[in-house]
Amino acid sequence: MTRVAVLAGGVGAARFLDGLVRVVPPADVTAIVNVGDDIEWAGLHISPDLDTVMYTLADMVNPETGWGLRGESRRTLDRLSELGGPDWFMIGDLDLATHLFRTHWLGQGNPLSTVTRDLVKRAGLELFITPVTDDRLRTMVDTDAGEFSFQDYFVRRRAVDRVHSLRFDGAETARPAPYVVEALNESDVIVIAPSNPFLSIDPLLSVPGLRELVASNRSKVAAVSPIIGGEAVKGPAADILQSMGHDVSALGVARLYEDLAEVFVLDETDAALASTIESETGMRVHIMPTLMTDVEAKMALAAGTLKAALHDG
Amino acid sequence: MTRVAVLAGGVGAARFLDGLVRVVPPADVTAIVNVGDDIEWAGLHISPDLDTVMYTLADMVNPETGWGLRGESRRTLDRLSELGGPDWFMIGDLDLATHLFRTHWLGQGNPLSTVTRDLVKRAGLELFITPVTDDRLRTMVDTDAGEFSFQDYFVRRRAVDRVHSLRFDGAETARPAPYVVEALNESDVIVIAPSNPFLSIDPLLSVPGLRELVASNRSKVAAVSPIIGGEAVKGPAADILQSMGHDVSALGVARLYEDLAEVFVLDETDAALASTIESETGMRVHIMPTLMTDVEAKMALAAGTLKAALHDG
Predict the structure, then answer these.
(1) Which residues from chain A sit within 8 angstroms of residue B100, using beta carbons?
(2) Contact in structure between B217 and B185 (CB atoms under 8 Å)
C-alpha cells in the first residue's frame, strides 16, 4: 500500500491525479488543493482548482479547456451579458450549480472542506480532496497596473500586466484544513504536482507550518516539473516566472523546490539540465516524458514519479 | 397629467401596472414594491416582487405562471437537484442572470433601489420601479410548525402550515427608499394594487412613516380588492386571511384599508357587499370587473380605478 499526498493546483495537477488514481487505489490518495485562486463572484464562492480537480477525476471535465464541464451551456452568462452584468468570468450553467451548492452550504456555516467532501462524494470519487485551508486565503498579484486578485489579473485583465510580486492575503492566520497535516505526515510519498510553483504551490505552502512540514518530509517528496523545454504546459507559469525575474526553465523551478523535494521529475526534453539541477540543488533527477497527452501518459507519469520517490527507480 | 403611485406586491400588482402604463404615460407611474418576500438563496439576493413587476412590464414574463421568464430553462436547477442542493426555489437559467446582476452590484455597495433602476432601464421601461426600502425587511410567518421566512413557508413548505401571525423583520429601522415619500405626496392618485393585504401591502406600510403618509393622503387613495367572490385570484391571500381569523371576502379586505383609502374597487361578483362596505368603512365603493384576463381588462381596471379616485366616476 502506497499512500500518496499531492499538493495540487488546477489543470496540471488534475491530470496528474487522474493518472495516479489508476495506479494506486484512489482511497490511498489525498489531494491538497490550492484555494488562492478562489473568488467571490456575484455572491457565489468559486473554487476553480477544487472544481478542476473534481471535474477531471469524475470524467466530467471539458477536455478542450481542461476546466469547466463537458456539454456545458451558457444561458445564464449570455443573459447576464445582455444585462451588462459581470460576464468576464466564464461560468457555464452546469458549473453554476456547483457554485450555488457550495455557496449555500458555506452560508449555512459549513467549512469549505466539508462542502468539498460532500461534492466529491456526490461525484462518486473515492480519493480524498481537500482545500489546503478552510480559512480565507487569496493570491494577490502586484503588477504595473496595481494590485489585483488572481482572477482579476488572470481572467478579467487577461494576464497582460507585468507582475512584480505575489502576496497571499490571509496566509498569516490560515490554518491547515482537517487531515492536511496527517495526510502529509502519514503518506508514503508527497508529490508536488506539475502546477504553477508561484500561483498554485506557493499559496498552499504559505499556510503556516506547511512549508516546514513538507521540508521535514523531504526524503519522501517528489516534485514534477511543470515546465517542458522552457514552456509552461498550461497557464501563466512561464510569463510569471519571467516577469518576476526567474529562469523560465526546469532549473528555475528546481531551485524553488530544492529544500522541499528530494526527487525532481524532469521532462526528457530538458534532460540536458539534469546534471546542473542535481549539482545545484542536491535533488535526484528522474527523467521521463511528462506531457500528459492521454490516460496512458498520465498513468506512466504517476507511476514513474512514485517509483522515483520510493527509491526503486 | 395624472401622476400615479402604486403600492405593489407581485403578480396582481404587476398586471394592474401593465394596464396602468397603457392608460397614462409610463413616466408618470411609480411602482413602490414590496421586498418582504426577498430571499437570500445560495448567496444570491432574490427580489421576487420586483422581478415579477419588471418582467411583466417588459413583456418577458411567463404568461402561464405570472412570474419567471418566458422561454425559461432549468439547466442549472436540474444540475443542482442532481447534486442534492437546495432546489426547492424555482430559479430558471435566465432568471438567474437577474439575481447574479443584482447580487453583484449590491455586493459593490449599491443600494437595491439603484440596482433596480439599472435593471429597469436595461429592460427598456420608462416607469419608475423602486423597492419600498433599501434596508433589510423580511416577512416572517409564525405558524403551527414554527416561524419561517415567507419563501420558506410559501415555497419550500408549500404553505401547508396554519398561520398565526406575520412579523416584518427589520421594519422598525427601515427607511423609505429615495423618492418613495415624494412619489406618495406628489402623485395625484395612490393605488393600493390588488395584492395580498397581509403579505404585500402590510410589509410595505410597516416602513416607519409610510402608513401615516398614505392615511394622510386618504382622499386620493384607491384600493383594488384582490378578492373576487371569496377567492384570492392568485397566491395564498385567501388561506392566510382565513388562517388569521379574517373574513375571506372583499369586506374583510375593505376593513383593513378603511383608514387608508377613500375608494374601494370591488369586483362586480361581490356587488352585494357594496352597501355594507360603504356603511361599515366609510369608503366609496366602485364596482367593476376586476379580473385581469387580458390587456383590455387590465386597461379597463386601471382606467376605472383612476376615474373613481379622481372623483369623476
Answers:
(1) 42-44, 76, 80, 85-86
(2) yes
Which chain A residue has the Cα nearest residue B122?
A: A83
Selected residue with higher pLDDT from A155 and A82: A82
The residue in chain B having the minimum alpha-carbon distance to the alpha carbon of residue A102 is B42
B66 backbone φψ class: left, alpha, beta (φ>0; ψ -120 to 50): left
Cβ within 8 Å of B, A 60-119: 73, 75-77, 79-80, 82-86, 93-94, 96-98, 100-101, 103-104, 106-107, 119
pLDDT < 50 stretches in chain B: 313
A56 close contact with B: CB closer than 8 A = no
How far is B11 from chain A, CA to nearest CA, in Å? 23
A36 domain residue, yes or no: yes
Cβ-Cβ contacts under 8 Å for B244 (sequence gap 6 or more): B163, B164, B165, B198
CATH number of the domain at A247, please. 3.40.50.10680
Could you please report the per-residue DSSP string of A16-50? Answer: HHHHHHHHS-GGGEEEEE--TT-EEETTEEE-HHH
pLDDT tens, residue by residue, A8-63: 999 999 999 999 999 999 999 999 999 999 999 999 999 999 999 999 999 999 98
Q: Where are the beta strands (DSSP E) in chain A?
A: 4-8, 29-33, 39-41, 44-46, 128-131, 138-143, 146-149, 163-169, 189-192, 221-224, 227-228, 231-232, 263-267, 284-288
**How big is chain B, counted in residues?**
313
- Looking at beta carbons, which residues of chain B come within 8 Å of A83? 97-98, 101, 119, 122
Smallest CA–CA distance from B73 into chain A, residue: A75
* Reported ipTM: 0.87
Q: Confirm whether A74 is domain-assigned.
A: no
CB pairs under 8 A between A and B: 101
Point out the residue among A42, A44, A101 whose CB comes nearest to the CB of B80. A101
pLDDT of residue B313: 44
Cβ proximity of A34 and A8 under 8 Å: yes
* Residue B211 domain-assigned (yes or no): yes
- In which domain, by residue range, is A278 found? 4-41+125-137+170-309
The pLDDT assigned to B263 comes to 98
Residue B183 belongs to some domain of the structure:
yes
For A85, nearest residue in chain B (alpha carbons): B101
> For the whole model, what pTM was predicted?
0.91
Is A73 in contact with B77 (Cβ distance < 8 A)? Answer: no
Chain centroid to Cα A228, Å, comes to: 17
Q: Quote the number of domains for chain A.
A: 1
